[in-house]
Structure formats: C-alpha cells, structure tokens
Amino acid sequence: MAWKQGVDLANMVKEAKVWAKSGKVADYIPALAEANPDMLAVAIYQGTDHCFLAGNVEEKFTLQSISKVLSLVLVLMDLGEDVVFSKVGMEPTGDPFNSIAKLETNKPSKPLNPMINAGALAVTNMIQGSTTEERLHRLLRLVHQLTGNEKITFNEYVANSELETAYLNRSLAYFMKQHGVVEGDIEELLDLYTKQCAIEMNCMDLARIGYVLAHEGCDPITAKRIIPLHIARIVKTFMVTCGMYNASGEFAIRVGIPAKSGVSGGILGAIPHRSGIGIYSPALDEKGNSLAGIKLLEVMAERYQLSIF
Ligand code: DON
Q1: What 3 state SS string does the chain have?
Q2: Which atom of ligand 1 lies nearest, measured to the CA of 98?
Q3: Tell me: the pLDDT tens digits for 63-108?
Q4: What class does CATH assign to 82-197?
C-alpha cells in the first residue's frame, strides 16, 4: 500500500493545528491526560494507490467511543436488528455522551442510541462469547479484518485507568441492570467495555475502517464482504445522526459526512463510495470532540466538496 505525503493536506493540517491550543485533552480517564495536545494527524484512504497523509501519522491512540461503531456492527451481525433495537433506541439525544438524565425520564427505560455511553454499554453487553476474553477476541478479529492489520490490540494501561475511575459508566450500567436493559455481572461488563474503548491504532488503520464502511461493508481491495450491506448502512446512519454527540447537527451542516469521534481525539470518517478518513488530535472542545480534528474536516470538506448532502 502506497501512502503519500499530501502537500495540500499538509497545508490544511498546518492551518487547523492552531486550534489545538484552544482545546483540552480528556482527563476524566487519567491515562488520556498524558496525551500531547499538539498532535494532529490525518489519513485519507481511497484505494491502494490513493492514500494521503499528513501530520503525526505514526502516533497511536485508543479508539474510545469510535469503538462503539464496531461493537454495534458485531452485535447486529450476531443477533440481528430486532434483538439489538429491543435494548437500545435509534434517536439522537441532544445531551452529552455520558448523560444519565434520559435513562430515568424515558419510559420504558432504554438508552436512546448506541453511540452514547449508556447505549454502548447495552451493546457491549450483547457481544456473544462465554468469557470476556472470547468476546474481546471476537471484536478484535473484526478490527483485524477491517484494517488488514492483525497486530492491533488494546492498550492495557488505558483500559485499567478507565476501569479504575469509571464511576459514571458504572452508575449507568447498574441503573440499566435494575431496569432489565443489561444482564450479567456489571464489573465484567465494565471490564470488557473499557478494553473495547482502549483498542489502539494509528490514523491509517482508522482510515482503512472508514474505507470499508464507505463501500457498504465490502473491502474493494480484497473484494471481500466484511459487513452486510444493511448493517453498514445502519451504522453510517448513526454516525450521521449521533456520531458527534450533541454536536452532530452542526457537524452535519459544516462537514456533512458520516463520522464518529472519541475522547482520545480520534475521528473516523466514511465518505460513501469514495474514501475513509482517520484523524487524531487529542485536544478536545467542550463537547468532547477533537477541536483541531473538526476544524481540519471543515477545511477539507470545503476544499474537496465532501458533504453528502
Ligand atoms: O466511556 C467513556 O467515557 C469513554 N471510554 C469513551 C467516551 C468517548 O469517547 C466520548 N467521545 N467523545
């Protein structure tokens, strides 16, 4: 695969990078507070001979909420839409990603969508397997297929750091257990969820995932279908409506592509029938999205006419 330094892209990275100074790295997961806020990296994957990158592209980062897209794919493939959407809804919230508020006010209590933490915990609870190791292994296998990179694993240090401090996610999970949305041992669920969030890669791997999603779940390079078409469509739709949390509406107007962010500063983008995008810049805005990453996507969207709308 021939990755090339994009000259144009390097200029856009330079322009967007100044924004990183106004952001703040996530610190509610202590290990994430150690990230260098000056990093900005982008990779655009458009087929083996058309891959462009710029910035700190070798830098690895954990997926955090981007992993919610992958766990959703896996449970939809395992259990089908009817089962999955009996536990989690399809509507955007307009609330922060870790909000507990609507779990109580919605009757029956059910997380509104799989991209917020409550919904993602319910999804992870549905990953099939007899042990946490087996469930995680199945998720990692999907990641290996999507990226073509079998070396990808999870960062134990980041996973432990989150597990030790995940009081809010524990509250969400116990609340949902009370209401029959999740079942089983909550500590085991938290263990799997934090490992899932700590799956680690660089922006080139992430762009490769975006490329497969952009091609409806089929990898055009190997001609293999990895995700059934209807499931690829479902997750891309969630990326448009809920992928940037309570900034999804503004992002749809300013950038206009299916995308998913994580508090590590990663952003996954999929431009239908065209390309996959991987971005990393850990300084976040107040809604928990990568500040320079979004600015870069805005510039790219304008320059390359990326909006699907
Ligand atoms: O559950 C959490 O809080 C983190 N592991 C993931 C949250 C996240 O990435 C939100 N994204 N912007």
Answers
A1: CCEEECHHHHHHHHHHHHHHHHCECCCCCHHHHHCCCCCCEEEEECCCCCEEEEECCCCCEECHHHHHHHHHHHHHHHHCHHHHHHHCCCCCCCCCCCCCHHHHHCCCCCCCCCCCHHHHHHHHCCCCCCCHHHHHHHHHHHHHHHHCCCCCCECHHHHHHHHHHCHHHHHHHHHHHHCCCCCCCHHHHHHHHHHHHCEEECHHHHHHHHHHHHCCCEECCCCEECCCHHHHHHHHHHHHHHCCHHHHHHHHHHCCCCEEECCCCEEEEEECCCEEEEEECCCECCCCCEHHHHHHHHHHHHHHCCCCC
A2: 3
A3: 999 999 999 999 999 999 999 999 999 999 888 899 888 888 888 8
A4: mainly alpha
Q: Supply the mean pLDDT for the chain.
A: 96
Task: Encode pLDDT of 234-256 as tens digits.
Answer: 999 999 999 998 999 999 999 99
CA of 29 to the centre of ligand 1 (A): 9
Instruction: Name every protein residue with a CB atom under 6 angstroms from any ligand 1 atom.
Output: 64-65, 97-98, 117, 162, 169, 197, 261-263, 288-289
pLDDT of residue 27: 96
For ligand 1, atom 4, the nearest C-alpha belongs to: 64
Which of 3.40.710.10, 1.10.260.40, 3.40.50.360, 1.10.3720.10 is the CATH number of 7-64+200-304? Answer: 3.40.710.10
Which of these is catalytic: 13, 17, 123, 193? 193
CATH 3.40.710.10 in the chain: give the residue spans: 7-64+200-304
Note if 42 is an active site residue.
no
pLDDT of residue 1: 65
